[in-house]
Design brief:
With 526 residues, the protein is α/β, with parallel strands linked by helices. It has 22 helices and 17 strands. One of its GO terms (molecular function) is hydrolase activity.
């Protein structure tokens, strides 16, 4: 046990007197101590692990004002309201505040009467705010949802790049970056852009109380209704939909079936959204049907299920959203109902967006990885943990794949042929081919690109005709999910082998993929 100092003693007293906790949750104490020692911190904590306390508690025991950067105004308001109920001098600055509100808050800051200030990253583009910070005694900077700084991250926001300047402008002020969902690439980006030689604390994402189920969509609304009535009648849950119109349609359908159902999406008025959120937080049987605009920062421990009626945009989004179920540690369920058309719909949205091409490329690949996960026949928990760098040996024994696997086909040969073609095509041309071009070689499709680079001379030319295009697409998504192929985004999502590729090329262990995700086992007739 480390020797208790006056500071750590004050922390424990504050933990109890302000936050009402007798002890820390896992990881919190080490993170707080690192901040109090003046170190930068990267905290990778799952939803419900108590991220806010990691910067709120040191903010209260340190001299000065902590500045917390949040991506959403609603998050700022919720956090400030909760702190004020604990008699903490907290405030926020946002674009939707009246001028007199902003002025009075600024005066409180100047008078050193604010302990925790919440702002959005965009606020740093305001010169007067930057001067206000320079004239203030800042105790620490906290970057919530820090994955937004990474261009590989699932919710990349360019304004988060403004935070990188704080390293130079306030070199002696400790910084903490927090997120629930960051893979290795995003974590590295966070450290490089926001922090200096940080203490990194990464908790396991494993949620043993959360059962994961993935089903094929046949009669979507009826399947959802049966899931709720048969397994979670009278319990609270979140249903995510792909659009505002579907949120309203599904909400009306469930309400007509006697479910206490609420609706939430960005198209509703502020008053309507606040009413739905308030009722959801306080009614034990409330089910809220929402777009992904809902959920971030929602503090409701007894959510018994999170249901997706469509394929999420990425594994990171999915893990963040299902993490809102069972935060009290009691049994909960994540239910996903999808079809192959979901990915097509999402990719169409991506293509029609005004995002830059490189970001569209990343988004499309993340959608492919998500579809590969949904189609997989392996343990759901192990797939998710492996995606975030955690290796497990035993299956969870409670997901849909562990309990009753659907029909599958042996993709072992197709996997080897696909990887061999990726390698041999690059060896010949020094070009990174995308999945469609690799499949063209495997099927022997003669195109101008093929003839230009003499790919018809490859030993893998036309060796995959026994597999349909949909099967080979499923193989590609599986290899993405397992990180057995990497993607060169600057070359239209060209593929290359990784350090995990050899395991699949040399392994004698079979690879099974879902027949539903791979279509019929028929070769294309060209």
């Amino acid at each position: 046990m480390p020797k208790e100092t006056k500071v750590t003693q004050k922390c424990r007293e504050t933990l109890k007197s302000v936050f009402g906790h007798e002890d820390y949750r896992e990881g919190q104490e080490a993170i707080i101590e690192a901040l109090l020692e003046g170190r930068d911190v990267l905290a990778l904590l799952p939803t419900g692990a108590g991220k806010s306390l990691c910067f709120q508690l040191p903010a209260l025991v340190k001299n000065g004002m902590a500045v917390v950067f949040e991506p959403l105004i609603s998050l700022m308001k919720d956090q400030v309201d909760a702190l004020k109920k604990k008699n903490v001098a907290a405030a926020y600055l946002s674009s939707n505040m009246e001028w007199d509100e902003i002025s009075s808050t600024v005066e409180l800051i100047r008078d050193e009467k604010i302990k925790i200030l919440y702002v959005s990253p965009e606020r740093l583009s305001n010169p007067s705010f930057c001067r206000l910070l320079e004239d203030s005694c800042v105790s620490l900077f906290a970057y919530d949802e820090a994955h937004c700084v990474s261009s590989w991250g699932h919710d990349f926001r360019p304004e988060y790049r403004l935070l990188s300047a704080l390293k130079e402008r306030f070199p002696s002020v400790p910084r903490i970056a927090l997120t629930a969902t960051a893979d290795a690439i995003s974590s590295r980006d966070i450290c490089e852009k926001l922090l200096v030689e940080p203490y990194v604390h990464a908790m396991s994402l494993e949620r043993k109380n959360l059962r994961i189920t993935v089903v094929r969509r046949k009669r979507g609304n009826e399947q959802l209704l049966a899931f709720i009535k048969e397994k979670h009648a009278g319990e609270s849950g979140i249903v995510y939909t792909s659009s505002r119109a579907k949120a309203e349609t599904i909400c009306a359908f469930l309400a007509a079936e006697g479910i206490n159902c609420l609706c939430y999406h960005a198209g509703l008025s502020r008053e309507q959204r606040e009413l739905s959120q308030t009722r959801f937080l306080h009614e034990k049987d409330a089910v809220i049907v929402a777009t992904i605009a809902f959920g971030m920062g929602i503090d409701k421990a007894d959510v018994r299920f999170v249901a997706h009626t469509f394929l999420p945009k990425s594994i990171e989004n999915y893990v963040q959203e299902i993490g809102r179920a069972g935060r009290d540690g009691q049994k909960a369920e994540a239910w996903l109902c999808f079809s192959g058309g979901d990915a097509f719909f999402q990719k169409k949205r991506i293509a029609e967006s005004d995002a830059e091409d490189w970001y569209k490329n990343i988004s499309e690949v993340k959608q492919d990885v998500m579809q590969g996960y949904a189609e997989s026949t392996e343990c759901r928990r192990n797939l998710l943990l492996a995606y975030f760098g955690e290796e497990t040996k035993e299956a969870c024994g409670q997901c849909d794949n562990c309990l009753a696997s659907e029909k599958s086909w042996d993709a072992s040969t197709a996997v080897k042929k696909f990887l061999s073609t990726v390698w041999r095509s690059y060896e010949k041309s020094k070009l990174y081919l995308n999945a469609a071009q690799v499949i063209e070689i495997l099927h022997g499709i003669e195109t101008s690109f093929i003839w230009q680079h003499d790919f018809q001379e490859l030993s893998t030319w036309k060796i995959g005709t026994e597999f349909s295009e949909s099967q080979l697409r499923a193989v590609y998504r599986y290899l993405l999910l397992k990180e057995a192929v990497g993607v060169e985004f600057s070359s239209y999502n060209g593929l290359f082998l990784t350090d995990k590729s050899c395991r699949f090329l040399s392994s004698l262990a079979p690879v099974f993929l879902s027949e539903h995700g791979s279509g019929q086992r028929k070769s294309r007739n060209y």
